[in-house]
Design brief:
This protein has 120 residues and is mostly beta strands.
Protein backbone atom coordinates (compact mmCIF):
# COMPACT_ATOMS: atom_id res chain seq x y z
CA UNK A 1 0.00 0.00 0.00
CA UNK A 2 1.30 3.41 -0.95
CA UNK A 3 1.86 6.15 1.60
CA UNK A 4 -0.05 9.43 1.43
CA UNK A 5 1.56 12.87 1.56
CA UNK A 6 0.76 14.27 5.02
CA UNK A 7 -1.63 17.14 5.63
CA UNK A 8 -0.73 20.25 7.59
CA UNK A 9 -2.66 21.15 10.76
CA UNK A 10 -4.95 23.27 8.58
CA UNK A 11 -5.88 20.21 6.49
CA UNK A 12 -4.05 21.55 3.43
CA UNK A 13 -1.06 20.03 1.60
CA UNK A 14 0.34 23.38 0.45
CA UNK A 15 0.50 27.07 1.24
CA UNK A 16 0.64 30.02 -1.12
CA UNK A 17 2.63 30.61 -3.24
CA UNK A 18 2.62 27.20 -4.89
CA UNK A 19 3.02 26.38 -8.55
CA UNK A 20 1.80 23.56 -10.74
CA UNK A 21 3.06 22.52 -14.17
CA UNK A 22 1.83 20.02 -16.74
CA UNK A 23 4.37 18.39 -19.04
CA UNK A 24 3.83 16.68 -22.39
CA UNK A 25 6.47 14.89 -24.42
CA UNK A 26 6.18 15.10 -28.18
CA UNK A 27 8.63 13.97 -30.81
CA UNK A 28 8.95 15.75 -34.16
CA UNK A 29 10.44 13.96 -37.16
CA UNK A 30 11.45 16.32 -39.98
CA UNK A 31 11.68 14.98 -43.53
CA UNK A 32 13.91 16.15 -46.39
CA UNK A 33 10.99 17.77 -48.20
CA UNK A 34 10.43 20.11 -45.22
CA UNK A 35 7.34 18.38 -43.82
CA UNK A 36 7.22 16.92 -40.37
CA UNK A 37 5.36 14.32 -38.38
CA UNK A 38 4.55 14.69 -34.69
CA UNK A 39 3.62 12.09 -32.11
CA UNK A 40 3.51 11.80 -28.34
CA UNK A 41 6.40 10.07 -26.64
CA UNK A 42 4.02 9.12 -23.81
CA UNK A 43 0.27 9.52 -23.63
CA UNK A 44 -0.67 11.06 -20.29
CA UNK A 45 0.52 14.48 -19.23
CA UNK A 46 2.81 14.52 -16.21
CA UNK A 47 2.21 16.91 -13.35
CA UNK A 48 4.71 18.69 -11.13
CA UNK A 49 4.00 20.71 -7.99
CA UNK A 50 6.40 23.16 -6.32
CA UNK A 51 5.30 23.47 -2.72
CA UNK A 52 6.59 26.36 -0.60
CA UNK A 53 5.77 25.83 3.06
CA UNK A 54 6.30 28.73 5.43
CA UNK A 55 4.90 29.34 8.88
CA UNK A 56 5.26 25.68 9.87
CA UNK A 57 5.54 24.80 13.52
CA UNK A 58 8.12 22.35 14.79
CA UNK A 59 5.64 19.44 14.78
CA UNK A 60 4.74 19.99 11.11
CA UNK A 61 8.42 20.30 10.12
CA UNK A 62 9.25 17.09 11.94
CA UNK A 63 6.28 15.26 10.37
CA UNK A 64 7.36 16.29 6.84
CA UNK A 65 11.02 15.44 7.52
CA UNK A 66 10.01 11.99 8.80
CA UNK A 67 7.79 11.42 5.76
CA UNK A 68 10.65 12.43 3.43
CA UNK A 69 13.00 10.05 5.25
CA UNK A 70 10.48 7.19 5.16
CA UNK A 71 10.15 7.64 1.37
CA UNK A 72 13.96 7.77 1.05
CA UNK A 73 13.81 10.92 -1.05
CA UNK A 74 12.90 10.34 -4.67
CA UNK A 75 13.11 6.55 -4.26
CA UNK A 76 9.66 6.14 -2.68
CA UNK A 77 6.22 6.62 -4.16
CA UNK A 78 3.15 8.06 -2.48
CA UNK A 79 -0.29 9.50 -3.14
CA UNK A 80 -0.62 13.26 -3.43
CA UNK A 81 -3.78 15.37 -3.49
CA UNK A 82 -3.61 18.23 -6.00
CA UNK A 83 -4.27 21.43 -3.99
CA UNK A 84 -6.10 23.03 -6.96
CA UNK A 85 -8.41 20.22 -8.11
CA UNK A 86 -8.46 17.91 -5.05
CA UNK A 87 -7.74 14.99 -7.41
CA UNK A 88 -5.57 12.23 -5.94
CA UNK A 89 -2.52 11.07 -7.91
CA UNK A 90 -1.36 7.69 -6.63
CA UNK A 91 2.10 7.45 -8.22
CA UNK A 92 4.09 10.50 -7.09
CA UNK A 93 7.56 11.01 -5.66
CA UNK A 94 9.88 13.77 -4.52
CA UNK A 95 12.01 15.39 -7.21
CA UNK A 96 15.24 15.07 -5.24
CA UNK A 97 17.06 13.20 -2.53
CA UNK A 98 17.65 16.15 -0.22
CA UNK A 99 15.23 18.24 1.79
CA UNK A 100 16.48 21.50 3.27
CA UNK A 101 14.42 23.32 5.82
CA UNK A 102 14.93 26.33 8.03
CA UNK A 103 13.85 26.89 11.59
CA UNK A 104 13.42 30.66 11.69
CA UNK A 105 12.66 30.82 15.40
CA UNK A 106 11.41 28.45 18.07
CA UNK A 107 7.86 28.39 16.71
CA UNK A 108 8.21 28.81 12.95
CA UNK A 109 10.00 27.09 10.09
CA UNK A 110 9.90 26.75 6.31
CA UNK A 111 10.82 24.34 3.53
CA UNK A 112 10.41 23.84 -0.21
CA UNK A 113 9.46 20.59 -1.92
CA UNK A 114 8.95 19.54 -5.51
CA UNK A 115 6.59 16.63 -6.10
CA UNK A 116 6.37 14.90 -9.47
CA UNK A 117 3.89 12.47 -10.93
CA UNK A 118 5.66 9.34 -12.18
CA UNK A 119 4.97 7.58 -15.46
CA UNK A 120 3.08 4.37 -14.96
Amino acid sequence: MSATFPLLKTGAVAQYPATKATQYASTVVRFLDGTDQRYRAYTPALRRWSIQLRLLDETELQMLAQFFASEQGQFGTFSFVDPWTQATYNNCSFDGDTMAYQLEDTTRGSLSLVIVENRT
